[in-house]
Amino acid sequence: DKLFGVPGCLIEVNPGKVILPPKYQDLGERIYNLNVRPDDVWLVSYPRTGSTWVQEMVWCICNDFKSEASKTISQMRTPLLELTAILANEEGSWKDNFPNSVDQVENMPSPRFIKTHLPWGLLPAQLEQVKPKIIYVARNPKDMCISYYHYCKLIHKLNGSVEEFCELLLDGTAPIGPLWDHILGFWEKRNEPNIQFLKYEDVKKDVRGTIEKMADFLGKSLSEDDIISLMDHVSFKKMRNNPALNLEPLLKLKNGPSFEMNGDSNFIRKGQVGDWKNYMSEDLSQRFDKWMETNLAGTGLHFQTNL
Ligand code: A3P
């Protein structure tokens, strides 16, 4: 609350506690009881892991990405399920431009492409039985944290230093809550046939390979031309300049038409592995290393913090 100037609320979830905007309490039950469809495609991630990037690949693999539809902002094509709860913490009528995100998901024609940052324990119970395709994206926590810091400054008026924000993440009190419960909740399920677990660093190393792997997982075949065009469409430069993906329309609604995105004030900001080195002291970096080592011990999961 102190750093964000707006209240958050603690929601009990098994395991642990999750930190969400208070409005979540109105939506949570509807989300938990949502009807899941077998042909849904879900993309789940902790914030700032490259989820918009992978979500765009997924949507484009399953739809005609050269069509007019692809120019629609991503919230309309691949809604963030809990967006309404997040916007409720914001001031101003600009947010009335967005429909209730749960209504939107309920009313979408199939196949639906749904994105969420909620942990497994808060997601619809039917995911267990219906088993639609689920893609989970994770990123090394050092870069994720720095990216999340900039995002919170850009979107949520975070009033704190990088170090203060890092403490929130290390302490499990950053918005959305503890990182390891989130990641490991999906890592444990990674071998289920309807689940794909991706890491940002692997996507970055091999975009083509990721597109091919996702197409295979989603049961789609792509021509060589499609692959080349899609690689171009999801390149950092193209995505950064694409108003359907870079949140520019939302930020202009929120901050006024003269709002300019530049430098770190970009939703699609740097797109690198290792940017944490520009922000973390040696001491802080070592604390992150130790934190990762402790929480990943015995899990078989590893993250690269440099490429
Ligand atoms: P940085 O802030 O480190 O640049 P999410 O979509 O989950 O919020 O993740 C956002 C992060 O993914 C940002 O990281 C953003 O720049 C990065 N990203 C988005 N599109 C990308 C792309 N095409 N290539 C590489 N990174 C991308």
Notes on the protein architecture:
The chain is of the alpha/beta class and 307 residues long. Helices cover 43% and strands 9% of the residues. It has helices at residues 24-32, 51-62, 74-77, 83-87, 101-107, 127-130, 141-156, 162-171, 179-187, 200-205, 207-217, 224-233, 236-240, 248-255, 282-296, and strands at residues 9-12, 17-20, 41-45, 113-116, 133-138, 195-199. A hairpin with a 4-residue loop joins strand 1 (9-12) and strand 2 (17-20). The longest helix is centred in the middle third of the chain and has 16 residues, at 141-156. The two termini are 35 Å apart. Bound molecules: adenosine-3'-5'-diphosphate. Adenosine-3'-5'-diphosphate (A3P) is lined by residues 45, 47-53, 143, 147, 150, 234-236, 239, 268-271, 275.
List keywords for this structure.
307 residues; alpha/beta; Rossmann fold; four-stranded parallel β-sheet; binds adenosine-3'-5'-diphosphate; Sulfotransferase domain-containing protein; transferase; P-loop_NTPase
